[in-house]
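In practice, a research group might receive sequence data for several interacting partners and want a quick structural hypothesis before committing to experiments. The following worked case mirrors that situation: the sequences arrive first, and a predicted assembly follows.
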Amino acid sequence: MDFGDSPAEADFRLRLRDWLAANNPGLPTSSTDDDYWAGMAAWHQSLHGAGFFGMSWPAEIGGQGLSSVHDVILDDELAAAGAPPRPSLGYLVQGILEHGNDDIQRRFLPGIVNGRERWCQGFSEPDAGSDLAALRTRADRDGDEYVITGHKVWTSYSDDADWCLVLARTNHDVPKHEGISAFAVPMRQPGIEQRPLRMINGIFKEFGEVVFDGARVAAADMIGAPGEGWPLAMTVVSHEREPGELGFVARYRKLVKDLTSRVQRDPSRYGSEQVRDLGWAIIEAEMLRLHVSRRLSDRLDGIEHGPEGSVDKLLMTEVEQAVGHAALSVGGTGHGDSDDTWLKVYLYSRAQSVMGGTSQIQRNLIARRILGLPTS
Amino acid sequence: MDVRLSAEQQALRDSAAHIVDRLGPHAVGQLDDRERVAKLDAAVAASGWRELRTPDDGERPLASAVEAAIVAEELGRGLADTPYLGPALATELRRLARAPVAVATETVALAPGLLELARIAPGAIPSGLEAIDAFGAATALVLLPAPDGHVLGEVALRPIKDQVEESVDLTRPTGRPEPIAALVLADQDRVLSDEDITRWNALGLALTSADLVGVMRGAVQLACDYAAQRRQYGAAIGSFQAVQHLLADAFVAMEGSRSATLHAAWAVDALPANDALAAGAVAKAYSARAARCVCETAIQVHGGIGNTWECLAHVYLRRALVSSDVLGGVGPNLTRVLAHHGIGGNDGLR
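A structural hypothesis for the assembly, expressed as tokens:
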């Protein structure tokens, strides 16, 4: 058991550190402003162009073909440099790698990995949240195409997306989990309407509703077999729960570093309660770094899509919300000055226990699938 | 980087699990079974685990702190009521001081409050010291001042007659020194520096955190087993979401503690002393907070039974409280972490 770098990993770390010293775009602390997200798109391409994104994905799709633990090093160095985190889309890549045929992989994965094509995820619906399999969006065959009709919600970055990974019902005569298929639907076409949703931090950018009314998708752009939508969705969400896949450790550690510097600059302004909140944020972020090291090490002999992602999700949520509380405590709400950066960080942190599957759902999964507790 | 246990480390874990599952207490009534305790003690003595930190031919320990932590976790999980933490920490002090290997069971004495290794003046009668995990130990190591650091001294301990009744932790009684002056330990070749003591503290934090991780695993298992068989409203209580969510949270807290603790154990031998101490402080603050909560959950899930002496849940909680206190629980380690990040004084903690 070794948390240290091998010689090759140490070389990689130094090369990355040098590159970051010259190429950090210096985006603001907040991960919630519109400008930030425009900057992130450029950052994705820059990171990938330099060979520092998609560390463990196959070279054929634009990945680096290295071992899983390179993502730990990447997150370490991004945080230490105060650089933006890596793009969070590994769950899409894992889902398509696992379920897409060769043609689908060849056509779609390189664009996702290199950042030239933007994707969103059309899973949740107004009446299908935690009970995702209750979804009602339908895909009806029409010659070589399917016609999509339905209403998706909580669709992150749908307004920028070129493609949407849509779950839709293709068979109405089988149990609810078995009649769902997945499609890569082009977003820029008639029959798709976007409605932005305003989040509690005030921004419109991240969240949206998407209404499909006669949108068309080629039958060849179904990902996986007819009826394979549910297993694909489970692969995607199991990885969407993993901080190692999302790269969130770098984001938390950067926030903690900024808050720590704030206290170091003028310690007399902060009372013991505030310092204590910061102390917990430091400990929590460090714990998650170590937990991700452990989980990505577990992948050195291959990926498994098990229930452990639910443990990761709850730990990640605990960390994000501890960092949010430290942001509120040390950074304040900003009513004394005009800077509400830390208020926004705090407010954003509340979503972590809902998105990607609520904390309640994760606890159900752990109770049944890890602890083996009885079902009623 | 590869944070998985090696095949040898897995074998060590399995062998510790085997011994504790076979000879550890499975019910409160078994705590006074002297024959069982003697068998467990003999098995642990034969395993050589208490001597993992003795030097090899040079000065390096025979085994890394990761191995020592693997054993600590399993012994905590199984509520092993035989000394391990105390002798292991005493062995480490002897290695650092280049003193000969102990000939009889010994432990270490901590200052009142358990925050650090006791430091006493030569010739002074020790009072208020607490010799941790002292069952069967006649002596405990302390620090005595020396011109450029510290040397090891030993204090004689009063015998412990009843290991269950004499301590907070029903599995690891605390010993009190006899009113006899401490003696300088014979044949020490090396004066202990502040850095040595920092690294020793890092080992202590890693091993107590590992014990807490084990205690949490044991307590979660105990509560899950009970929830699966106890029936109310015509169903096992483990099928109710309210109970399931308590236990899921307990499991998650244990897993987070384990990740931080594995790193702390690795850090003892791999990082500079101050960084190793900070890694230990992260693990200990996190694990101590988690362990109290997890053990409280185990009591809660057991309902009324959980509040009786006969239920093992309080034995886990008591062991957790003592492991937390040894070298500091939440508060002192939060202070250590903040100090490592340049915030606040360290209140004299090392």
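Before designing any experiment, note the following. Chain A touches chain B through 50 residues (CB under 8 Å). Chain A is about 45% helix and 15% strand.
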